[in-house]
Amino acid sequence: AGKTTLLHVLAGRKNAGTITGRICMNGEPKKHGTFCRLSGYVEQHDALSPKLTVRELLEFSGNLRLPQSTTARDRSGLADRLVAMLQLSAVQHERLKDVSRGERKRVSIGIELMANPSTVFLDEPTTGLDASGAQTVMRAVHEICYTMQVAFLCTIHQPVQEQFFMFDHLVLMQRGGSLIYFGPTGPEASALVAYLRGLPDVGPLPACANPADWMLQVIGAGVGHDDGRAAYLTAVFYESNHFEDAKD
């Protein structure tokens, strides 16, 4: 569908094909070298050594990626903090091959966080996990976002309501890459729901419905995709205050 390709382009990991437009950070053009030092990327499928322990993998990442001026005590302290926040304390001395899939995903996130980045890209971090594992991953990401002041850019497949409510901003795109919404989600997705409710022929969010599922129904995504309606929704967004805010 292009979600991974978009992340690769934003992260500067896409070399093939033609890329147009500008990528800015905090309103300034992105400088590739600086951005690479300040960002992390968690692939959907990892390529980690199964024979190393969770702790060894974290410390190895820190040894390679933190500045040389970082003391051993500070590196160990960061590893301790991440082990606790990612709920890996019980398995930190287990080999990677012996941990669960959800724990393995949290290890992958921790490895990137050991570089002390300001931005981390997550490519479908909940795909392949059971409900409990997915929830634990997203809760940890949400906590780290605010506690460590790290921005997470995440693609996610069919989030449940509680996970969807954890997102602060949403990029909703139609087939072909045009924007339908880009802005804050609001508490319990209230800002997103209010925007979509303002569109013609859109009824209220049904009681107990997941806004993530409802928004896809509203825009006509999936089977029976209406290109005419999608183009109309894009045009409406480009005339909205949300688009002006996004440009700023």
UniProtKB/TrEMBL annotation:
What's a single GO MF annotation on this record?
ATP binding
Q: Which Gene3D superfamilies match?
A: P-loop containing nucleotide triphosphate hydrolases
Q: Which Pfam families match?
A: ABC_tran
Q: Does the entry feature the keyword Transport, yes or no?
A: yes
Keywords noted in UniProt: Transport
Known InterPro entries for this protein?
A: ABC_transporter-like_ATP-bd, P-loop_NTPase
Q: Which residues form the ABC transporter domain?
A: 1-127
Write down the PANTHER family for this protein, in alphabetical order.
ATP-BINDING CASSETTE TRANSPORTER
Annotated protein name in UniProt: ABC transporter domain-containing protein
Which source organism does the UniProt entry give?
Answer: Eutreptiella gymnastica
